[in-house]
Amino acid sequence: EAGVAQSPRYKIIEKRQSVAFWCNPISGHATLYWYQQILGQGPKLLIQFQNNGVVDDSQLPKDRFSAERLKGVDSTLKIQPAKLEDSAVYLCASSLQPLGETQYFGPGTRLLVL
Amino acid sequence: SQQGEEDPQALSIQEGENATMNCSYKTSINNLQWYRQNSGRGLVHLILIRSNEREKHSGRLRVTLDTSKKSSSLLITASRAADTASYFCFQETSGSRLTFGEGTQLTVNP
After folding, report:
1. How many interchain CB pairs under 8 A, A with B?
2. Given this model, what pLDDT does residue B93 score?
3. Which residues on neighbouring strands pair with residue B72, listed in sequence order?
4. Please, what sign has the CA dihedral across residues A32, A15, B86, B30?
5. CB-nearest partner of B102 from A41, A99, A102
């Protein structure tokens, strides 16, 4: 069974530029999550999708971050414009259902904003 | 707001010893999970314990849950150098909020 795929693996941009991350979850997983993990901290949930609908985006900085999962499969997370404090690893995870389930994580995208 | 805390922040032991990590939380939970993260890589699920369970085992792992104290412990027995990683507890609250702790960095010295 293929795992969660993410790309790119690394990205370096300058502040005020835009960047996009892509995630392909495990086939058949209805729930998809995006997390931000700052160095030395635990992952913080940015947004949770159930199929193509948003379950929770309460911690997503909506003035600069956006995410979509148009067909209920792949997802993209965008930052525009980026700030220095956005430097982090962006993790995508998926699960069969939204609650009480194991989450399977991708390798993450490491973003450095200069 | 932070749902829970983990302690210790860092733990260094010798191979063969046991390692215990603790996780506390503030509001009631549906379940609590433990994940491992090796340096620079994604998280791997270790074990899930539901709010009506008190203890679960998986290989060398033992997880306990005390809902009266709002705390959980992860015990790794007979540790190996390959167990060196960061360990995170993850809470699904009764209000369906999902939160990771700050993690415990475990170093197992050969």
Report:
1. 52
2. 85
3. B23, B65
4. negative
5. A41
Contact residues on chain A for B35, CB-CB shorter than 8 A: 103, 105
* Average pLDDT rounded to a whole number, residues A48-63: 94
Nearest to A107 among B41, B97, B100 (CB): B41
Min Cα separation A55/chain B (Å): 10
Give yes or no for residue A91 having a pLDDT over 90: yes
| B103 CA: distance to closest CA in chain A (Å) | 6
Are residues B90 and B31 in contact, defined by beta-carbon separation less than 8 angstroms? no
Q: Is A102 exposed, middle or buried (0-12, 13-18, 19+ CB in 10 A)?
A: middle
Measured between CA atoms, the residue of chain B closest to residue A92 is B42
CB A77 within 8 Å of CB A65: yes
Among A4, A42, A100, beta carbon nearest to B100: A42
Burial of B95 (C-beta count, 10 Å sphere; 0-12/13-18/19+): exposed
DSSP letter, residue A109? E
pLDDT in tens, B66-110: 999 999 999 999 999 999 999 999 998 887 789 999 999 999 999
pLDDT of residue B52: 94
CA atoms within 13 A on the CB side of B66: 9
